[in-house]
Specification:
Blueprint: E1 7-11, H1 26-38, E2 45-50, E3 60-65, E4 68-73, E5 76-84, H2 96-102, E6 134-135, E7 141-147, H3 161-174, E8 184-192, E9 201-212, E10 215-223, E11 229-238
Antiparallel strand pairs: 1-3, 2-5, 2-8, 3-4, 4-5, 6-7, 7-9, 8-11, 9-10, 10-11
Helix pairs in contact: 1-3
């Protein structure tokens, strides 16, 4: 039963926003649930835990109550988001031209486990984001030059935060992966500081920050061409058993 203080909506994830085949891109769905929690406000970071893969083209229940938002499919909890008082550490800025050159070393060009991924997949320009993080010479960073498609705006011509979360997502995995390797996003904590504009150019930067058993840790950031921080995130990935 929905209480007076609870907001509930039914949502579906279009197939365009897939990560692994058959399920939503982790960053995009995390950002979508965050938008339900925060709206257009960017006053705190949000920690999003992915409990199960989010199915595509299915009716899902999105509930928002106080400082928590959840996404469920029937009785299955898929995603949970909470506001957190946390200062995120962003990896160092990499200029756009240098980030774009690093794309040549993107491990997914040789062997990509999820080539249809909205964020890092080998999709047609304008369909996916085509963020291909490769190693930046002389550093522990991976980076990519992000050319924001005009086709990722909402009905008001604004790039939704869900798209920015998608940009922050996969780079943290590719900071670890070799060709053909993969893991699934388990948790993403992020804060968007500024708007992203369609047709703009940005640097996406990430680095690996550790490993513990099947868990991989990383952090990422999106920067404007002058080095202004747009958004930052930290992630936990779970490798296959």
């Amino acid at each position: 039963m929905t209480t007076a203080a609870e907001l509930q909506t039914v949502v579906t994830v279009p197939a365009r926003f897939r990560g692994p085949e058959g399920s939503a891109n982790g960053g995009w769905i995390a950002g979508t649930v965050t938008e339900a929690l925060h709206g257009a406000r960017h006053d705190s970071a949000v920690e999003v835990t992915l409990h199960a893969p989010t199915p595509l083209e299915a009716e899902l229940s999105l509930r928002q109550l106080a400082n928590t938002a959840t996404l469920t499919h029937g009785d299955t909890l898929l995603v949970e988001a909470i506001s957190v008082a946390e200062q995120l550490t962003a990896p160092a800025f990499v200029p756009f031209n240098e980030a774009a050159r690093a794309e040549g070393g993107f491990a997914g060009l040789a062997d990509h486990a999820f080539p249809g991924c909205f964020s890092c997949g080998l999709r047609s320009p304008g369909d996916g984001l085509r963020i291909f993080p490769g190693s930046v010479s002389g550093t522990d960073l991976v980076a990519a030059g992000w050319r924001v498609p005009m086709t990722v705006t909402d009905e008001d011509g604004v790039v939704p935060d869900a798209v920015v979360w998608a940009a922050l997502d996969c780079a943290t995995g590719w900071a670890h992966f070799k060709p053909g390797e993969f893991a699934l996003l388990g948790r993403l904590t992020a804060k968007v500081e500024r708007r992203v504009y369609p047709g703009g150019t940005y640097s996406v930067v990430a680095r690996a920050t550790g490993r513990e058993g099947r868990k991989l840790f990383g952090e990422s950031a999106v920067y404007e061409v002058d080095g202004t921080l747009v958004a930052a995130a930290k992630a936990v990935w779970i490798t296959p058993a």
